[in-house]
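Quick one: sequence plus pyridoxal-5'-phosphate SMILES, need structure tokens.
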Amino acid sequence: MDSLIRILKQNSAIPRADLARQIGLSEDDLAAKIVKLETNGTILGYHAVINREKWDTDAVTAVIEVRVTPEREGGFDRIANRIAGFEEVQSVYLMSGGHDLMVVVEGSNLREVASFVADKLSTIEAVQSCATHFRLKTYKENGILHAVEEAPERLAVSP
Amino acid sequence: MSSSRIAEHVRNIPRSGIRDFFEIVQSMKEVISLGIGEPDFVTPWHIREAAIYSLEKGKTGYTSNLGSPRLRRAIAKYVEQYFAVEYNPHDEIIVTVGVSEAIDLALRSLINPGDEVLYHEPCYVSYSPSIQLAGGVPVAVATRAKDEFSLRASDLEKVVTKRTRVLMLNFPTNPTGAVMPLEELKKIAAFAVKHDLVVLTDEIYSELTYDEVPHHSIAALPGMKERTLFLHGFSKAFAMTGWRIGYACGPADIIEAMMKIHQYSMLCASIMSQEAACEALERGQRAIERMKEEYRLRRNFIVSSLNEAGIPCHLPKGAFYVFPDIRGTGLSSKDFSLKLLDAKKVAVVPGTAFGPSGEGYVRCSYATGMNQIKLACQLIADFVKK
Ligand SMILES: Cc1ncc(COP(=O)(O)O)c(C=O)c1O
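Reply:
Sure thing.
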């Protein structure tokens, strides 16, 4: 199971027939395993890692450090989920250190993100402060380097 | 130009079979090669970065002949941790220019003219010529497919003589991926003790064993440390072939003898590579595990695909080679390889490049990307159908 998850985490688009051969399962057994991981919530979804310099170059991503007042009951969870519900929000993490939540927001332009922060995020009552940092360039995302290096030459046959 | 100006013992060395094949492949375009005996991964970044940093700090001089004390300490720690053999970094370890140099130094230190050296075959291409260049007599012992190419002490008994001085082992094996079951390894150890042989164990693939098969080094068996030279390096598991760095661990008298040759012929291994090697030993485990998992998956793929194509191929437990049986095609190893190359532009290495007992087999390396492997397997399947 571990190796199946590891492979899918790295490359969920791998053809299922190849994957079955690599881990020594029949295609049917593999499909059953994957369905199980999906239905029990271990695998929540699949997506492609996009190079933003090649596609949708106007899109803007911001990382926002949010300080909130935790609630007596439920702590940060209810507020975090409330923030997570917005379409613009890609990720929400509870953090240790100087702020409480780290929120990653994506918008089709700068104005959209700014308005989300001003109108939605900072107006939530428990939110004390927001520090918004805009992403300028991506070098590596989800374990994938964005600069594609050419493979070095190798000898065609070697001992 | 007259060839007689080349020394006789060098003239007598036959050209490497792999070299001939390399030249044919090299002259063709767009070949998919399963003929490459080195990792397709580049050296993990943390290791490259450490080497860059060492250059920035100006570490550009010679080191001690035996290798930098820091590296020797790191080697001692690593070998103790993963192989359960303790060596003193002060006088039982020498850092060499790859396992290649370690083999050469060991043979030159141990062999008097005419001494016999036993080794198992099919094997790495350099063994027999290295023995010859050191003035020894190579004595090959064939391993068998039915034993998954592991070695049997009873076969060694058949060829041992009064002149036998050294036994060379390489498990996991290039080109068969064979590993040694512990029980059989113990018999080999007893054989070496009985005939008072020095054992050279080439451990270059020892990190790369799969399916929870534990690797046992003969050096760790009782009574073996004092008669064993443990040769290892960074080329395969750490993907560092081009750095040319390896080491030998063993009894102080043999290490001292090897050092005598090394200090005059090589002086020391490259300091940059030594710095990189320290980093590899200290923090390389995570990267090794990543590459090893990838090799395992490719191995499963290639073995399953070849068997399905009607080419019997056992599942080797180590290294990054499979050694399928191509006798069913009615072709010799060489003809199979040449025809496959000609018809499908897929390069595999004839088993005979690794000794006559490799006839009937070819070596396919899975140290190449999955897409290439997949394509190559399809083309091989097409080829054998015809
Ligand atoms: C069995 C074996 N020993 C030694 C070597 C050479 O290793 P190094 O790069 O450390 O000289 C190889 C390389 O292919 C090998 O397969």
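The first helix of chain B runs from residue 8 to 11. Chain B touches chain A at residues 16, 18, 21-22, 25-26, 31, 33, 35-38, 40, 42, 124-126, 174, 293, 297-298, 300-301, 304-305, 347, 349, 370, 374 (CB under 8 Å).
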